[in-house]
Amino acid sequence: MKLMFSLLFCVVALMASSVAADSPKPNFVFLLVDDLGWGDFGSYGAEFYETPSIDKLSAEGMRFTNGYAACTVCSPSRAAILTGCYPARIHLTDWIAGHQRPYEKLSIPDWQMWIDHERVLLPEALKQHGYDTMFLGKWHLMPNGNESFRQHYPTSHGFDINVGGREWGQPKGPGKYFSPFGMPGLDDGKPGEFLTDKLTDAAIDWLSSKDNRKPFLMYFSYYSLHGPIMAPPHLVKKYQDKSVGFANTKNEFLDPRRAGMVESLDTSVGRIMAKLESLGIADNTVVILTGDNGGDYDETTAGLKNFKGFSHEGATREPLIIKWPGKTMPGSTCDVPVVGTDFYPTMMQMAGLPLRPEEHIDGLSLASILKGESEVLPRDSIYWHYPHYHRTKPYGAIRYQDWKLIEFFENGDLELYNLRDDPNETTNLVTQRPGMAEELLGKLKAWRHSVGAQMPTNNPEHDPAREGERAKRKNPKPRTR
After folding, report:
1. What is the CATH number of domain 384-466?
2. In the beta sheet, which residues pair with residue 407?
3. pLDDT tens figures, 66-124
4. Could you give the residue ranges of the DSSP H alpha helices within 279-380?
5. Do 435 and 416 meet the contact criterion of CB atoms below 8 Å apart?
6. How distant, in Å, are the alpha carbons of 38, 164, 226, 359 from that of 200?
7. Domains in the chain: boundaries
8. Cβ pair 286, 29 in contact under 8 A
9. Architecture of the domain made up of 26-375
10. Which of 131, 184, 314, 319 makes a 20 to 30 Å CA pair with 160?
């Protein structure tokens, strides 16, 4: 009897392992929104903007309240998502090609404006395990200029197809957000067509035409909500009418054009979700929605301090929604601090693939949190490094548990906040908690050393009378690192 039971147990175990081995890998739809403010979605408090599709996605997945971009500006954040590395580690620390301010107190380091081909990026890692990969929208991970930089299009970094991605950080075609677009892989369509709609058409067409027996990564990197701020006329009219007499209790940005851009984004998300349903693959498709940095206006941050380009929460804290069907509890919320480097290992583990810690060095998988198996991650700190001039001066920052320290490199000024008690960073606690400030500064400096972060240096051409003056940017010379 015992022998029969043992044999039966072995057969069941083998069948279970066979089913697990044969179970299809999940598809991934990664939706990255440009200049996304903390308060732009209804599920994050918006009342003027209307985002029913995104709010539905939030209700079907997990909403993060401490999701962070890896940088205050776009290109480094995008590189962090694809590499799983902090921008400081890969020396890609500013938007490409950055500001040239030759008379500031500090000289910026000789930073990198592309991702090295030696790195195995997220789409490349998935391709090695049978995934089809498609990129749509804003790339902004290559400089304009020398022909050798053409080696850094999305199709040179793991994507089978590129629709719309080039060196641009914003639409610069003849019609900008309206046809004609002047983008690779995207026809100009009809006069008056809107870019977000047109890119969504391409996404829908690809989903409809591909062999859905193969898993896929569709990486949709919206040009919205980056300027120039414009939207289809009927949406502008809708929000012009809505703004009349609107009780703006949350100090929202009531520009009807931006509100129309947000609704166009929401419509795109809704169309993609509907297509996944109609194809019968929604239950095996992970959907991730987040942004690359804060909104470009103070009123988009729902009270968080400052916005894109600054050193505070409004520049880096981002909406983050993840739907993992059958794994993540619908309507759940996560307060654990997470950052853009975490997506690479998370998606690898979701797919049941071996992690690549030698690649996504700074990322941690969120799978256990998404499945409700854990409420913590094995780290206590997140870091930022921005040795550049923008709306802020060069700085570094650390979030350690509930504490956040900012160090400004020009003169060593420090700001210390308790984000649990003061999420809007209104009270600098450096003088009240000097011991905590000293401890976090030590952690920040040790981290910079560990990742080989580049630091600005004293500028011999410093001219206080000409600070803030910009020089014409030059196309970088290609170099090998």
Report:
1. 3.30.1120.10
2. 396, 414
3. 999 999 999 999 999 999 999 999 999 999 999 999 999 999 999 999 999 999 999 99
4. 313-316, 343-350, 367-370
5. no
6. 23, 11, 17, 31
7. 26-375, 384-466
8. yes
9. 3-Layer(aba) Sandwich (3.40)
10. 319
